[in-house]
């Protein structure tokens, strides 16, 4: 993110009114096109990445985030980009990941260099955070349309849906990287997908971004409707191939981005609706940010109208400070950025005097005695301040960070802390001289 955007962001998040804002989910890069996946007690969030200052859908990589509590999100960096697909030339647009047979399959639309058309690629990984590799070395399917979404039905039959301006599906084979039969067009009738007024070539509301799932025997397709600007609508059907019935609006037009993009999962007893908007400083239609709301299905299975908020959902779990926690697991960060760490994973970097990270709902129980932090500094270091409740809250401890001779030359520092009990929002505030101070890879309290 540019210095200008970071400066604006600092002003925004240091203002008291914004201090509790948890939406957008990510503050240090622009994100778009959310695709959540629940796996082994975490929700993994696959997104695109809008480049800073973009004036088009200038997107070169995808990003992965994860959370165990819906408020603190771990930055897993970018395990997949355009170069993953040797045949792709541009447009790392809206994809989605599913788990099957012990593997993770990430379906994405990209431009095929050879044809100049949008095509659907599929990458595979053994871990939800990658690394991902091109599963077949060529497009899985290509018809110039975008926004793939895979759904595995209870009987094991998998489907890949995609399309703009049309809506298609194909029956995936069990290997998830080939299909049987050909792409089939879903009839876009006004009964199935609502009525768009004043556009003879697109008579229904369906625009793009299908998100198909099954709940209580009913199949749902939640999609971006009627560009531009888009709202989110949905249809239901008694089978994965229809016939579809239009059900109405999920999220109205809101949020300074002329596109929106839906993803829905159930996680730890709640239902969550992911979307994007232009809420970050410098944000807009090409500099978007992913956000999330909790919702409850109506008794008859219909989806209630959901509006964007800056609060986001409440925490559904506490965070354990007595095990190693990644520095890039945060509810919010002020001034910081992230990068791949030489010791693996990501680290928080580009830290300047006064920057901070916030970790919500940290369960200190009967108390913490000390903090250890893994740090590196090519300059003269600084201090990690342990604060509680806010970035200006009580200082519970200070860990001195020395120069280590390099931004990836890591050492572990520790310091005693006091008054750190109960469940609190933890702020790590970074202080020192001018310029970049140090990097932080992870931290851990001792009980
Ligand atoms: O992010 C690029 C495109 O914008 C996506 O493929 C669409 O769904 C829209 O969000």
Helix content: under 10%
Mean pLDDT: 95
Q: What proportion of the residues form beta strands (DSSP E)?
A: over 45%
- The count of β-strands is 34
Structural class: mainly beta
Ligand identities: beta-L-arabinofuranose
Question: Treating each run of at least 4 consecutive H or I residues as one helix, how many helices?
Answer: 2
C-alpha-based Rg, rounded: 22 Å
Provide a quick synopsis of the model:
The protein is mostly beta strands and 447 residues long. It has helices at 3-14, 190-193, and strands at 32-39, 42-50, 59-67, 73-75, 80-81, 88-90, 96-100, 103-112, 118-125, 133-134, 141-142, 149-152, 158-162, 168-172, 179-185, 206-215, 218-225, 231-237, 245-251, 263-267, 270-277, 289-295, 325-326, 329-330, 332-334, 337-340, 346-349, 356-363, 370-377, 382-388, 395-401, 406-416, 423-431, 439-446.
Mind explaining what this structure looks like?
The two termini are 37 Å apart. The chain is globular, with a radius of gyration of 22 Å. Strands 1, 2, 3, 4, 5 and 24 form a six-stranded antiparallel beta sheet that branches. With 447 residues, it is mainly beta. It has helices at residues 3-14, 190-193, and strands at residues 32-39, 42-50, 59-67, 73-75, 80-81, 88-90, 96-100, 103-112, 118-125, 133-134, 141-142, 149-152, 158-162, 168-172, 179-185, 206-215, 218-225, 231-237, 245-251, 263-267, 270-277, 289-295, 325-326, 329-330, 332-334, 337-340, 346-349, 356-363, 370-377, 382-388, 395-401, 406-416, 423-431, 439-446. Strand 18 and strand 19 form a beta hairpin. It contains two helices and 34 strands. The structure holds beta-L-arabinofuranose.
């Amino acid at each position: 993110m540019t210095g200008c955007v970071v400066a604006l962001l600092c002003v925004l998040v240091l203002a008291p009114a914004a201090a509790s804002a948890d939406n957008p989910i990510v503050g240090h890069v622009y994100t778009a096109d959310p695709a959540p996946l629940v796996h082994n007690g975490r929700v993994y969030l696959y997104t695109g990445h809008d480049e800073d200052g973009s004036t088009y859908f200038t997107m070169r990589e995808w990003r992965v985030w994860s959370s165990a509590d819906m408020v603190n999100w771990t930055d897993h960096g970018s395990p997949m980009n355009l170069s993953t697909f040797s045949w792709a030339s541009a447009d790392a647009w809206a994809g989605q990941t599913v788990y099957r047979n012990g593997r993770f399959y990430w379906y994405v639309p990209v431009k095929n260099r050879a044809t100049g058309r949008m095509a659907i690629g599929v990458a595979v990984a053994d871990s939800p955070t990658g690394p991902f590799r091109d599963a077949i070395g060529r497009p899985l399917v290509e018809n110039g349309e975008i926004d793939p979404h895979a759904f595995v039905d209870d009987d094991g039959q998998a489907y890949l849906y995609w399309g703009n301006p049309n809506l298609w599906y194909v029956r995936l084979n069990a290997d998830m990287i080939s299909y049987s039969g050909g792409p089939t067009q879903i009839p876009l009738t006004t009964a199935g997908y609502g009525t768009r007024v004043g556009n003879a070539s697109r008579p229904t509301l369906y625009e793009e971004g299908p998100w198909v799932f099954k709940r209580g025997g009913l199949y749902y397709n939640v999609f971006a409707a009627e560009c531009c600007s888009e709202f989110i609508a949905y249809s239901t059907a008694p089978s994965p191939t229809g016939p579809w019935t239009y059900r109405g609006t999920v999220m109205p037009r809101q949020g300074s981005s002329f596109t929106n993009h839906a993803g829905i999962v159930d996680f730890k007893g709640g239902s969550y609706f992911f979307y994007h908007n232009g809420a970050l400083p410098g944000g807009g239609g090409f500099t978007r940010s992913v956000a999330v709301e909790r919702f409850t299905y109506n008794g008859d299975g219909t989806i209630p109208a959901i509006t964007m908020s800056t609060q986001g959902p409440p925490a559904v779990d506490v965070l354990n400070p007595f095990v190693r926690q990644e520095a890039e697991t945060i509810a919010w960060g002020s001034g910081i950025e992230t990068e791949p760490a030489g010791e693996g994973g990501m680290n928080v970097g580009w830290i300047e005097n006064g920057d901070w990270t916030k970790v919500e709902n940290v369960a200190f129980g009967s108390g913490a005695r000390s903090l250890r932090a893994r740090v590196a500094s090519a300059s003269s270091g600084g201090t990690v301040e342990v604060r509680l409740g806010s970035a200006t809250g009580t200082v519970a401890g200070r860990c001195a960070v020395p120069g280590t001779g390099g931004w990836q030359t890591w050492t572990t520092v520790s310091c005693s802390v006091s008054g750190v009990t109960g469940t609190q929002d933890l702020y790590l505030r970074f202080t020192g001289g001018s310029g970049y101070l140090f990097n932080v890879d992870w931290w851990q309290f001792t009980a």
